[in-house]
Amino acid sequence: MRITSLMLSILVSAATVGVVHAADVTGAGSSFAAPVFAKWADAYKAKSGVGLNYQSIGSGAGIKQISEKTVDFGASDKPLSPQDLEAKGLTQFPAIMGGVVPVLNIKGIAAGQIKLTGDVLANIYLGKIKQWNDPALVALNPSLKDIDENITVVRRADGSGTTFIFTNYLSKVSADWKTKVGSDTTVAWPEGVAGKGNAGVASYVQRINGSIGYVEYAYAKQNKLSYTQLQNRDGAYVLPDDTTFQAAAAYADWAKAPAFGEVLTNEPGKNSWPITGATFVLLQKKADKPAQSKEVFKYFDWSFKNGGALAAQLDYVPMPANVVKLIQASWKTEVKDAATGKAVW
């Protein structure tokens, strides 16, 4: 199913009942997690009658909207620090894991044919490598020696958790990138054209010959984009899929991560995909609308228990059962009715 169809299904659900029902859940943020949130929402709506009105507008906007209390939950691919959570009165938990992949558009090059190292990828985005037949690329991919074509770099225009995951990885594998650009949801890009959301980046890459971008894996598959192999921390070249995302996710130690703030890029393991990440759900700790906060928990409780197979269909990695127990324990202590002080869950 295409992304547009997934998002349309949410709109159709809302349209069916006219104005969004009072019990429906509202959320905003991560476009990385939007496909799986939509798939879960369709199934949950059929089971419970409660819909999800989710705006896929990027992690930065999701953090802003939950901070301003205009949605029931925000979603960000960049975990907030304990200090930021405290300052904003928020709590967070991880909801799903998946992979960010480099995608390209070179005539005659199919998905998985091109090999990249982290350093070469960083140098492309730094503007040091400007053509596809650059010696550094040809050394990895002899088939590129006759591709005398300029490289067009495509990046995100909006505050993006996908950008955080991508630039966090580049900062770990390239000292030059770490010093000159760094990692965040928005950075001072040395060059490139900008697309809004994963869909915007995918659209540019589809239309520009010689382009390279980065998107969540589901967007690459559903838009039939050519993704690359990538050398991981152990030196092995791996392809992106649910098994390599899961291999990287296996190294996460959620129990020891303050406020669940685990970042999964450049993990060890010969089968690990190096640009793996998670999406974090953000809620107000003092709930002005406790009934709505409880509906958020019901939606994710159902999704954790029943949504694993649906997530796997889109090549996401569900949270392990032992981690779900940690998450649900946090629900009982972290979010309380602002008026009574009683736990919402």
From TrEMBL:
Coiled coil feature spans: none
Gene3D superfamilies in UniProt: Periplasmic binding protein-like II (3.40.190.10)
Entries under SUPFAM superfamilies matching the protein: Periplasmic binding protein-like II
Assigned keywords, A-Z: Phosphate transport, Signal, Transport
Superkingdom of source: Bacteria
Transmembrane segments: none
Domain PBP: 24-302
GO biological process: phosphate ion transmembrane transport
GO CC terms: ATP-binding cassette (ABC) transporter complex
Signal peptide from the UniProt entry: 1-22
InterPro entries given in the database record: ABC_phos-bd_PstS, PBP_domain, Phosphate-bind_PstS
Function: Part of the ABC transporter complex PstSACB involved in phosphate import.
NCBIfam families assigned to the protein according to its UniProt record, in alphabetical order: 3a0107s03, PRK10918.1
Family the UniProt entry places it in: Belongs to the PstS family.
Protein's UniProt name: Phosphate-binding protein PstS
Organism: Aquirhabdus parva
